[in-house]
Amino acid sequence: MLPLGTWLCLRTLRPVRQRTGAGEPSAPALAALALTVGVVGGIYRIGGWAWPAAQVD
Q: For 20, how many CA atoms within 13 A lie in the half-sphere containing its CB?
């Protein structure tokens, strides 16, 4: 999650420049990113009710 957040912050703070390449990421790139974020979130129990559910026994 840290690399994604860093990339988003740096992308936002950069000055706007004229783009000549592809404008939007492709569908496979978005799917790969979504899979990666989901796996990392699942490993670290990020999101939803993961913390309270882990405390109930």
A: 0
**CA gap 40, 52 in Å, rounded:** 19
2 CB burial (10 A radius; 0-12, 13-18, 19+):
exposed
pTM above 0.70, yes or no: no
Buried b (16+ CB within 10 A) or exposed e, 18-57: eeeeeeeeeeeeeeeeeeeeeeeeeeeeeeeeeeeeeeee
Distance between CA 35 and CA 16 in Å, rounded?
Answer: 29
pLDDT for 10-48, tens place per residue?
Answer: 888 877 766 666 678 888 889 999 999 888 887 777 666
